Write the structure tokens for this entry.
Amino acid sequence: MVMSSVQAKSFFGVIQRIYKLFSTSTKRWDDLKSFVKGRKGRRLTLKSWSDTRWKSRVDSVKAVRFQAPQIRDALLHLVENRGDATTASDARSLADYELQSFDFLVGIIIWFEILQKVNSVSKLFQRNDMVIGESISLLQGLIVFLEEYRNCGFEAAKVEAQKIASEMDVEPAFCEIQIRRKSKLFDENARDEPVQGAEEYFRLNYFLQIVDNALSSLQLRFVQFQKYEEIFGFLFNLAKLKNMDDESLKHSCVELENFLRHGDNFDIDALELFSELQLLRKALPDGLSKPVEVLEYIKNLYHGFPNAWVAYRILLTIPVTVASAERSFSKLKLIKNYLRSTMSQDRLNGLTMLSIEKKNSCET
């Protein structure tokens, strides 16, 4: 989403510049704290933008979203009271040309609304008991939100931005964009290009690009999840498993065998799995509701349910989200960034996986 438009990249560049200006000096940080009193007695600390952690992205925007007037005042204080010319120049630029831009204020509202919802779903995806069925419902809810936000979110963002602009004495008007016009060749017909107002240009080239980019990514993930649900759905939904008729259950077992087949090799036998599940769904205690609980139940009985044992293990190892090794965690923070290390991200991910699966790697 960040790379969806030039304006979006510029927006997060401003967020990062504000953070770096204050965080690189304890005196400037103290100045900031003296101006930022917080919301409901709780100060929101400026955060750095991260390429991998959604939480940091939300926090970096949230602090500016709810404290823009106070941050602007802190920047002006730096201009007047700090002798460093570079600091004064940077602070003046941020205070006068960035935070006092109505485009920037609208962008804060838009990004906070989107990132907050995405982060909420992302945190739920990180639960160790999350399964595909729940993830599909969460993802579908997020898609519905973005579709509704696409239709009415821009006007709502303008209203919220106008409140902040009023508090900061900023004119609630979008900046006029000078459109670069292409030179016409001698044999081309002259055509008048449509003229867009500043607000419409912002809506089309900023707001809609961000939302459409997010929707496209989520819809692709949703289709992938649905494909897995069609194959594994009868296993992770215990109510569905118990209520399926034998013909439907057998068909699902055959589809699963075909999906897991690799040439002449296959992980399960469909007919044997069908027979095992007929018995298993009647033997399961009433208190079980999740696939991981079913796997625990048959853990000591896998000799009697070998195909079900394999099927549920495969089901529960299907990732519902993606992740990469984060260099700032624990000892990995010693590797400051990829520019200062010869270790590639692939190797870092591999070493991280070996550490996570240390028990299994030592046994093999």
